[in-house]
């Protein structure tokens, strides 16, 4: 109850202070096309689609890559020379683009994925994804909770595994690459209760949301 109350306050008290220029951002985004595709619609499943993503979320991720709060060797090099204004302009551009429709691969366990996305999992105290990402996977831009619908399932699996690995590292002392730049440890806490099969299922379900 306390966490839900905190989330409620956070969502409705966070103002949208967008100051990016999408037309300028389009020009600055040319360096992104190689991995993220035209208009932010990546054709390669290991690179995320950026089209239609919340502007605030994109700015946060770019800043996290630059500060080291989130690490990726490719992105670290890409953001090194970007100013805050560059990041805001690029984010403004991608946020105004339309994401291409995604799909779940044939044979995916959609039923299990939907169950987790909409209802969570009691064992392991896994909260429902719908709470932060919405019934249609559109996220909550004002709270910088990302849109997930139509995202590549391969990319989603990679990110959920990275969040889970952070918890495993904390328990075992391992230094395996992980991710922990989530709000209040929500994703690291959620991911540690999911199995590989469940991560695959929920990622495929999300990929097919539209």
Report on the architecture of this protein.
This protein is mainly alpha-helical. The chain has 2 domains: about 90 residues, Cytochrome c-like domain (Cytochrome Bc1 Complex, Chain D, domain 2, Orthogonal Bundle), CATH 1.10.760.10; about 100 residues, Cytochrome c-like domain (Cytochrome Bc1 Complex, Chain D, domain 2). It has 11 helices and no strands. Helix 4 runs antiparallel to helix 6.
Which key terms come to mind for this protein?
Cytochrome Bc1 Complex, Chain D, domain 2, 210 residues, 11 helices, 0% strand, mainly alpha, globular
CA-based gyration radius: 17 Å
The low-confidence parts are 4-16
- Known CATH architecture of the largest domain: Orthogonal Bundle
The assigned structural class equals: mainly alpha
Q: Enter the CATH topology name of the largest domain.
A: Cytochrome Bc1 Complex, Chain D, domain 2
- Give the CATH class of the largest domain: Mainly Alpha
- The H/E string reads HHHHHHHHHHH
Distance between the termini: 30 Å
Tell me the number of strands. 0
Secondary structure topology:
Elements: H1 2-13, H2 22-28, H3 33-36, H4 55-67, H5 73-79, H6 84-95, H7 110-119, H8 130-133, H9 153-172, H10 186-191, H11 196-207
Helix pairs in contact: 2-6, 4-6, 7-11, 9-11
